[in-house]
Amino acid sequence: MEQSLKKTRTMPRDRELWKKMRTMRRNRNRDGKEEEKDKGILLSGDTILFLPDELLQKVLSFLPFVNIIRLGIVCKRWYEVVHSSAPSSWAMMAPQKTLFFKPCFDGCTTFSGHLYDSGLLQWYNFGSPRLEKSLRCTSSSCGLVCLMNPSDGSRLFVGNPIKRDWKLLQVPGHSTPNFNALALSFDRCTRGYTVVVAKCIHTQLLGKFLQWHLSVHIYQSTTKSWATPFAQDLGHWQAGRYVVICDGVLYHFIYHLDLKIPRLVAFDLAKPPSSIQSLIQESIPTPCPFGCSGLLNLSNKLVMVGAVYDPPDEVWVILELKEDKTWREVSQMPISMQKKLRRSDSINCCGAGDFIFMHTALWPEILTFDMGQKVWAWSSHPYTEQLHLCFKPRSQFYYGFCFEPRFDISP
Asked: Is there a contact between 379 and 386 (Cβ–Cβ < 8 Å)?
Protein backbone atom coordinates (compact mmCIF):
# COMPACT_ATOMS: atom_id res chain seq x y z
CA MET A 1 0.00 0.00 0.00
CA GLU A 2 2.88 2.38 0.80
CA GLN A 3 4.47 1.65 -2.60
CA SER A 4 1.21 2.40 -4.40
CA LEU A 5 0.90 5.65 -2.41
CA LYS A 6 4.43 6.70 -3.38
CA LYS A 7 3.70 5.97 -7.02
CA THR A 8 0.53 8.04 -6.83
CA ARG A 9 2.47 11.09 -5.69
CA THR A 10 4.73 10.95 -8.76
CA MET A 11 2.03 10.40 -11.38
CA PRO A 12 1.53 13.10 -14.05
CA ARG A 13 -1.97 13.75 -12.79
CA ASP A 14 -0.61 14.92 -9.42
CA ARG A 15 2.14 16.99 -11.06
CA GLU A 16 -0.59 18.70 -13.04
CA LEU A 17 -2.50 19.25 -9.79
CA TRP A 18 0.51 20.91 -8.19
CA LYS A 19 0.92 23.17 -11.23
CA LYS A 20 -2.70 24.29 -10.91
CA MET A 21 -2.24 24.95 -7.20
CA ARG A 22 0.88 27.07 -7.89
CA THR A 23 -1.05 28.96 -10.56
CA MET A 24 -3.80 29.59 -8.01
CA ARG A 25 -1.27 31.07 -5.56
CA ARG A 26 0.14 33.36 -8.24
CA ASN A 27 -3.36 34.54 -9.16
CA ARG A 28 -4.13 35.18 -5.51
CA ASN A 29 -0.93 37.20 -5.05
CA ARG A 30 -1.59 39.18 -8.22
CA ASP A 31 -5.15 40.39 -7.71
CA GLY A 32 -6.19 38.90 -4.28
CA LYS A 33 -8.96 36.85 -5.90
CA GLU A 34 -9.32 33.13 -6.55
CA GLU A 35 -10.82 31.81 -9.71
CA GLU A 36 -13.83 29.56 -9.41
CA LYS A 37 -12.01 26.56 -10.84
CA ASP A 38 -9.24 26.94 -8.26
CA LYS A 39 -11.76 26.67 -5.46
CA GLY A 40 -12.82 23.32 -6.85
CA ILE A 41 -9.23 22.15 -6.77
CA LEU A 42 -8.85 23.00 -3.08
CA LEU A 43 -11.96 21.03 -2.22
CA SER A 44 -10.92 18.02 -4.28
CA GLY A 45 -10.66 14.73 -2.39
CA ASP A 46 -7.21 14.13 -3.88
CA THR A 47 -5.69 17.02 -1.95
CA ILE A 48 -6.23 15.24 1.39
CA LEU A 49 -3.40 12.88 0.40
CA PHE A 50 -0.96 15.76 0.85
CA LEU A 51 -2.08 16.66 4.38
CA PRO A 52 0.40 15.87 7.18
CA ASP A 53 -0.60 13.06 9.52
CA GLU A 54 -1.27 15.48 12.39
CA LEU A 55 -3.60 17.62 10.29
CA LEU A 56 -5.38 14.60 8.82
CA GLN A 57 -5.89 13.26 12.34
CA LYS A 58 -7.31 16.63 13.38
CA VAL A 59 -9.80 16.55 10.48
CA LEU A 60 -10.93 13.02 11.36
CA SER A 61 -11.36 13.95 15.04
CA PHE A 62 -14.50 15.96 14.20
CA LEU A 63 -16.30 12.83 12.93
CA PRO A 64 -18.32 10.28 14.93
CA PHE A 65 -16.18 7.39 16.13
CA VAL A 66 -17.95 4.92 13.80
CA ASN A 67 -16.93 6.95 10.75
CA ILE A 68 -13.35 7.19 12.03
CA ILE A 69 -13.10 3.42 12.37
CA ARG A 70 -14.50 2.91 8.86
CA LEU A 71 -12.04 5.42 7.39
CA GLY A 72 -9.22 3.53 9.10
CA ILE A 73 -9.61 0.69 6.58
CA VAL A 74 -9.34 2.90 3.48
CA CYS A 75 -5.58 2.47 3.17
CA LYS A 76 -2.50 1.66 5.20
CA ARG A 77 -1.66 5.30 5.87
CA TRP A 78 -5.14 6.10 7.18
CA TYR A 79 -5.06 3.01 9.38
CA GLU A 80 -1.81 4.24 10.93
CA VAL A 81 -3.28 7.71 11.44
CA VAL A 82 -6.37 6.33 13.19
CA HIS A 83 -4.38 3.90 15.35
CA SER A 84 -1.41 6.20 15.87
CA SER A 85 0.82 5.54 18.88
CA ALA A 86 1.30 9.29 19.36
CA PRO A 87 -2.33 10.52 19.33
CA SER A 88 -1.75 14.23 19.94
CA SER A 89 -4.88 15.36 18.08
CA TRP A 90 -7.23 12.71 19.50
CA ALA A 91 -7.00 14.38 22.92
CA MET A 92 -8.99 17.32 21.45
CA MET A 93 -11.53 15.03 19.81
CA ALA A 94 -15.14 16.16 19.81
CA PRO A 95 -17.09 14.70 22.77
CA GLN A 96 -18.61 11.29 22.07
CA LYS A 97 -21.57 9.65 23.75
CA THR A 98 -21.15 6.58 25.95
CA LEU A 99 -21.17 3.15 24.29
CA PHE A 100 -22.74 0.01 25.71
CA PHE A 101 -21.50 -3.46 24.78
CA LYS A 102 -23.86 -6.44 25.11
CA PRO A 103 -22.14 -9.76 24.43
CA CYS A 104 -23.69 -12.60 22.51
CA PHE A 105 -21.83 -15.89 22.52
CA ASP A 106 -24.39 -17.85 20.56
CA GLY A 107 -22.46 -20.20 18.27
CA CYS A 108 -19.05 -18.56 18.75
CA THR A 109 -16.13 -18.89 21.13
CA THR A 110 -14.64 -15.40 20.87
CA PHE A 111 -15.47 -12.18 22.69
CA SER A 112 -18.14 -10.69 20.42
CA GLY A 113 -21.54 -9.06 20.59
CA HIS A 114 -23.33 -5.82 19.76
CA LEU A 115 -22.40 -2.23 20.52
CA TYR A 116 -25.02 0.44 21.26
CA ASP A 117 -24.30 4.11 20.54
CA SER A 118 -26.35 6.22 22.96
CA GLY A 119 -25.78 9.32 20.81
CA LEU A 120 -26.84 7.98 17.42
CA LEU A 121 -29.24 5.39 18.96
CA GLN A 122 -27.82 2.65 16.75
CA TRP A 123 -26.47 -0.88 17.24
CA TYR A 124 -23.32 -2.28 15.59
CA ASN A 125 -21.63 -5.67 15.45
CA PHE A 126 -18.51 -5.57 17.57
CA GLY A 127 -15.90 -7.93 18.99
CA SER A 128 -12.28 -8.62 19.92
CA PRO A 129 -11.04 -11.93 18.46
CA ARG A 130 -8.04 -12.02 20.80
CA LEU A 131 -10.23 -12.32 23.91
CA GLU A 132 -12.12 -15.37 25.18
CA LYS A 133 -15.78 -15.29 26.12
CA SER A 134 -15.20 -16.20 29.80
CA LEU A 135 -14.20 -12.61 30.72
CA ARG A 136 -17.42 -11.67 32.52
CA CYS A 137 -16.09 -9.46 35.34
CA THR A 138 -15.70 -5.91 33.98
CA SER A 139 -14.86 -2.34 34.91
CA SER A 140 -14.27 0.77 32.80
CA SER A 141 -12.90 4.28 33.13
CA CYS A 142 -12.65 6.91 30.41
CA GLY A 143 -11.75 4.88 27.29
CA LEU A 144 -10.19 1.88 29.06
CA VAL A 145 -11.92 -1.38 29.97
CA CYS A 146 -10.73 -4.08 32.37
CA LEU A 147 -11.90 -7.69 31.87
CA MET A 148 -11.48 -10.68 34.15
CA ASN A 149 -12.72 -14.24 34.47
CA PRO A 150 -14.70 -14.37 37.76
CA SER A 151 -13.53 -17.93 38.44
CA ASP A 152 -9.87 -17.18 37.64
CA GLY A 153 -8.30 -14.51 39.82
CA SER A 154 -4.78 -14.95 38.46
CA ARG A 155 -4.98 -12.73 35.36
CA LEU A 156 -6.92 -9.93 33.72
CA PHE A 157 -6.93 -7.85 30.54
CA VAL A 158 -6.93 -4.06 30.32
CA GLY A 159 -7.28 -2.23 27.03
CA ASN A 160 -9.05 0.06 24.63
CA PRO A 161 -11.93 -1.78 22.90
CA ILE A 162 -12.09 0.76 20.05
CA LYS A 163 -8.43 0.27 19.15
CA ARG A 164 -8.54 -3.45 20.08
CA ASP A 165 -5.35 -2.89 22.07
CA TRP A 166 -5.20 -5.25 25.09
CA LYS A 167 -2.61 -5.90 27.76
CA LEU A 168 -2.43 -9.01 29.95
CA LEU A 169 -1.72 -8.54 33.66
CA GLN A 170 -0.88 -11.32 36.10
CA VAL A 171 -2.73 -10.78 39.40
CA PRO A 172 -1.19 -11.79 42.76
CA GLY A 173 -3.09 -13.51 45.55
CA HIS A 174 -5.51 -16.42 45.58
CA SER A 175 -6.22 -17.71 42.07
CA THR A 176 -9.73 -19.07 42.76
CA PRO A 177 -11.49 -16.75 45.23
CA ASN A 178 -15.17 -17.08 46.09
CA PHE A 179 -15.79 -13.49 45.02
CA ASN A 180 -13.83 -11.22 42.69
CA ALA A 181 -14.45 -7.46 42.55
CA LEU A 182 -12.78 -5.35 39.87
CA ALA A 183 -12.32 -1.58 39.66
CA LEU A 184 -10.47 0.63 37.16
CA SER A 185 -9.59 4.33 37.28
CA PHE A 186 -7.86 6.42 34.59
CA ASP A 187 -6.04 9.64 35.52
CA ARG A 188 -6.39 12.24 32.75
CA CYS A 189 -3.50 14.31 34.11
CA THR A 190 -0.81 11.64 34.40
CA ARG A 191 -2.30 9.46 31.61
CA GLY A 192 -1.87 6.49 33.95
CA TYR A 193 -4.42 4.07 35.32
CA THR A 194 -5.07 2.11 38.50
CA VAL A 195 -6.54 -1.40 38.66
CA VAL A 196 -7.92 -2.78 41.93
CA VAL A 197 -8.81 -6.43 42.45
CA ALA A 198 -10.59 -7.29 45.70
CA LYS A 199 -10.62 -11.03 46.47
CA CYS A 200 -12.88 -12.52 49.12
CA ILE A 201 -12.57 -16.16 50.23
CA HIS A 202 -14.07 -18.12 53.12
CA THR A 203 -11.50 -19.71 55.38
CA GLN A 204 -13.41 -21.71 57.99
CA LEU A 205 -16.82 -22.25 59.54
CA LEU A 206 -17.49 -20.57 62.90
CA GLY A 207 -20.82 -21.67 64.26
CA LYS A 208 -23.46 -21.16 61.59
CA PHE A 209 -21.45 -18.49 59.73
CA LEU A 210 -18.42 -18.60 57.46
CA GLN A 211 -15.23 -16.74 58.25
CA TRP A 212 -14.28 -14.46 55.35
CA HIS A 213 -10.92 -13.07 54.31
CA LEU A 214 -10.47 -9.97 52.10
CA SER A 215 -7.34 -9.02 50.15
CA VAL A 216 -7.02 -5.87 48.05
CA HIS A 217 -4.46 -5.84 45.23
CA ILE A 218 -3.58 -2.57 43.47
CA TYR A 219 -1.79 -2.17 40.13
CA GLN A 220 -0.27 1.18 39.06
CA SER A 221 0.52 1.58 35.37
CA THR A 222 3.10 4.28 36.12
CA THR A 223 5.25 1.84 38.10
CA LYS A 224 3.99 -1.33 36.35
CA SER A 225 3.82 -3.13 39.67
CA TRP A 226 1.32 -4.66 42.10
CA ALA A 227 0.91 -3.96 45.82
CA THR A 228 -1.28 -5.63 48.44
CA PRO A 229 -1.87 -2.96 51.11
CA PHE A 230 -4.78 -4.79 52.77
CA ALA A 231 -5.23 -8.49 53.57
CA GLN A 232 -7.28 -9.22 56.71
CA ASP A 233 -10.04 -11.41 58.08
CA LEU A 234 -13.50 -9.88 57.94
CA GLY A 235 -15.08 -12.14 60.54
CA HIS A 236 -18.73 -12.61 59.63
CA TRP A 237 -18.69 -9.75 57.14
CA GLN A 238 -18.66 -10.70 53.48
CA ALA A 239 -17.38 -8.50 50.64
CA GLY A 240 -19.64 -8.20 47.61
CA ARG A 241 -18.92 -7.82 43.90
CA TYR A 242 -19.84 -4.12 43.67
CA VAL A 243 -16.79 -1.87 43.84
CA VAL A 244 -15.77 1.43 42.22
CA ILE A 245 -12.99 4.03 42.42
CA CYS A 246 -14.13 7.62 42.82
CA ASP A 247 -11.76 10.54 43.48
CA GLY A 248 -8.96 8.26 44.69
CA VAL A 249 -11.20 6.30 47.08
CA LEU A 250 -12.24 2.68 46.62
CA TYR A 251 -15.87 2.10 47.61
CA HIS A 252 -16.85 -1.49 48.33
CA PHE A 253 -20.07 -3.05 49.65
CA ILE A 254 -19.86 -5.52 52.54
CA TYR A 255 -22.71 -7.56 54.01
CA HIS A 256 -23.55 -9.29 57.28
CA LEU A 257 -26.16 -12.05 57.49
CA ASP A 258 -27.47 -10.72 60.83
CA LEU A 259 -27.90 -7.19 59.47
CA LYS A 260 -30.42 -6.20 56.81
CA ILE A 261 -28.64 -2.98 55.84
CA PRO A 262 -25.30 -3.38 53.95
CA ARG A 263 -22.37 -1.08 54.60
CA LEU A 264 -20.32 0.85 52.07
CA VAL A 265 -16.67 0.98 53.11
CA ALA A 266 -14.39 3.75 51.83
CA PHE A 267 -10.83 2.61 51.15
CA ASP A 268 -8.38 5.47 50.57
CA LEU A 269 -5.91 4.19 47.98
CA ALA A 270 -3.24 6.70 49.06
CA LYS A 271 -3.62 5.83 52.75
CA PRO A 272 -4.90 2.27 53.25
CA PRO A 273 -6.77 1.49 56.50
CA SER A 274 -4.96 -0.25 59.32
CA SER A 275 -7.73 -2.70 60.24
CA ILE A 276 -11.15 -3.93 59.21
CA GLN A 277 -12.57 -2.42 62.40
CA SER A 278 -11.61 1.08 61.30
CA LEU A 279 -13.17 0.44 57.90
CA ILE A 280 -16.48 -0.66 59.41
CA GLN A 281 -16.54 2.21 61.91
CA GLU A 282 -16.15 4.77 59.11
CA SER A 283 -18.40 2.95 56.65
CA ILE A 284 -21.43 4.56 55.03
CA PRO A 285 -24.81 2.89 55.66
CA THR A 286 -27.53 2.72 53.04
CA PRO A 287 -30.65 4.73 53.94
CA CYS A 288 -32.84 1.61 54.31
CA PRO A 289 -32.85 -2.12 53.44
CA PHE A 290 -31.33 -1.92 50.00
CA GLY A 291 -30.40 -4.36 47.26
CA CYS A 292 -27.58 -2.86 45.21
CA SER A 293 -27.37 -3.54 41.48
CA GLY A 294 -24.70 -1.04 40.53
CA LEU A 295 -22.06 1.21 42.09
CA LEU A 296 -20.98 3.83 39.55
CA ASN A 297 -18.59 6.74 39.11
CA LEU A 298 -20.41 9.31 36.97
CA SER A 299 -18.33 12.46 36.41
CA ASN A 300 -16.53 11.92 39.77
CA LYS A 301 -19.85 11.48 41.60
CA LEU A 302 -20.63 8.25 43.43
CA VAL A 303 -23.98 6.91 42.24
CA MET A 304 -25.78 3.81 43.47
CA VAL A 305 -28.62 1.98 41.75
CA GLY A 306 -30.76 -0.61 43.44
CA ALA A 307 -34.03 -1.69 45.02
CA VAL A 308 -35.55 -0.27 48.19
CA TYR A 309 -37.52 -3.03 49.90
CA ASP A 310 -40.89 -1.79 51.14
CA PRO A 311 -43.01 -4.96 51.45
CA PRO A 312 -44.95 -5.97 49.54
CA ASP A 313 -43.50 -3.51 47.01
CA GLU A 314 -40.02 -3.02 45.63
CA VAL A 315 -38.96 0.40 44.35
CA TRP A 316 -35.90 0.87 42.16
CA VAL A 317 -34.09 4.14 42.78
CA ILE A 318 -30.95 6.05 41.79
CA LEU A 319 -29.05 7.56 44.74
CA GLU A 320 -26.13 10.00 44.77
CA LEU A 321 -23.67 10.36 47.66
CA LYS A 322 -23.42 13.94 48.93
CA GLU A 323 -20.37 15.56 50.53
CA ASP A 324 -21.74 14.98 54.05
CA LYS A 325 -21.84 11.20 53.31
CA THR A 326 -25.62 11.07 53.07
CA TRP A 327 -27.64 9.87 50.11
CA ARG A 328 -29.78 11.99 47.81
CA GLU A 329 -32.47 10.42 45.65
CA VAL A 330 -32.02 11.35 42.00
CA SER A 331 -34.91 9.45 40.46
CA GLN A 332 -37.22 6.46 40.78
CA MET A 333 -37.68 3.94 38.01
CA PRO A 334 -41.23 4.07 36.59
CA ILE A 335 -43.29 1.07 37.70
CA SER A 336 -44.13 0.07 34.13
CA MET A 337 -40.44 -0.03 33.18
CA GLN A 338 -39.54 -1.89 36.35
CA LYS A 339 -42.10 -4.63 35.69
CA LYS A 340 -40.88 -5.05 32.12
CA LEU A 341 -37.20 -5.21 33.02
CA ARG A 342 -37.77 -7.54 35.97
CA ARG A 343 -39.69 -9.99 33.80
CA SER A 344 -36.70 -12.15 32.96
CA ASP A 345 -33.84 -11.75 35.45
CA SER A 346 -32.23 -9.55 38.09
CA ILE A 347 -31.21 -6.08 36.98
CA ASN A 348 -27.59 -5.08 36.53
CA CYS A 349 -26.25 -1.56 35.94
CA CYS A 350 -23.27 0.19 34.45
CA GLY A 351 -22.62 3.80 33.53
CA ALA A 352 -20.20 6.42 32.24
CA GLY A 353 -20.42 10.15 31.69
CA ASP A 354 -24.06 11.07 32.36
CA PHE A 355 -25.62 7.80 31.18
CA ILE A 356 -26.76 4.79 33.20
CA PHE A 357 -27.57 1.51 31.44
CA MET A 358 -29.84 -1.04 33.16
CA HIS A 359 -30.12 -4.47 31.64
CA THR A 360 -30.38 -8.19 32.27
CA ALA A 361 -28.51 -11.14 30.83
CA LEU A 362 -31.55 -12.66 29.14
CA TRP A 363 -33.53 -9.63 27.95
CA PRO A 364 -32.75 -7.96 24.59
CA GLU A 365 -33.71 -4.40 25.51
CA ILE A 366 -31.78 -2.00 27.73
CA LEU A 367 -33.14 0.81 29.88
CA THR A 368 -31.17 4.06 29.91
CA PHE A 369 -31.25 7.03 32.27
CA ASP A 370 -29.75 10.44 31.47
CA MET A 371 -28.49 12.01 34.70
CA GLY A 372 -28.42 15.47 33.14
CA GLN A 373 -31.87 15.43 31.54
CA LYS A 374 -33.46 13.08 34.14
CA VAL A 375 -35.01 11.07 31.29
CA TRP A 376 -35.75 7.33 31.19
CA ALA A 377 -35.81 5.60 27.79
CA TRP A 378 -35.90 2.14 26.24
CA SER A 379 -33.48 1.01 23.57
CA SER A 380 -34.81 -1.84 21.46
CA HIS A 381 -32.31 -4.45 20.36
CA PRO A 382 -32.59 -5.11 16.61
CA TYR A 383 -31.12 -8.61 16.79
CA THR A 384 -34.25 -10.61 17.50
CA GLU A 385 -32.42 -13.91 17.96
CA GLN A 386 -31.60 -12.80 21.49
CA LEU A 387 -35.26 -13.15 22.39
CA HIS A 388 -34.60 -16.89 22.60
CA LEU A 389 -31.69 -16.63 25.03
CA CYS A 390 -33.85 -17.86 27.92
CA PHE A 391 -33.54 -21.38 26.51
CA LYS A 392 -29.75 -21.32 26.60
CA PRO A 393 -27.50 -22.22 29.59
CA ARG A 394 -27.19 -19.32 32.01
CA SER A 395 -23.38 -19.66 32.13
CA GLN A 396 -23.06 -18.58 28.49
CA PHE A 397 -24.10 -14.99 29.15
CA TYR A 398 -23.29 -11.99 31.26
CA TYR A 399 -24.61 -8.50 31.42
CA GLY A 400 -22.19 -6.31 29.50
CA PHE A 401 -20.39 -3.03 30.13
CA CYS A 402 -20.18 0.54 28.90
CA PHE A 403 -17.25 2.81 28.04
CA GLU A 404 -16.31 6.05 26.31
CA PRO A 405 -14.99 5.84 22.73
CA ARG A 406 -11.46 7.26 22.87
CA PHE A 407 -8.54 7.05 20.43
CA ASP A 408 -5.98 8.81 22.61
CA ILE A 409 -5.76 6.15 25.34
CA SER A 410 -3.81 2.89 25.40
CA PRO A 411 -3.05 0.46 28.24
From this structure: no
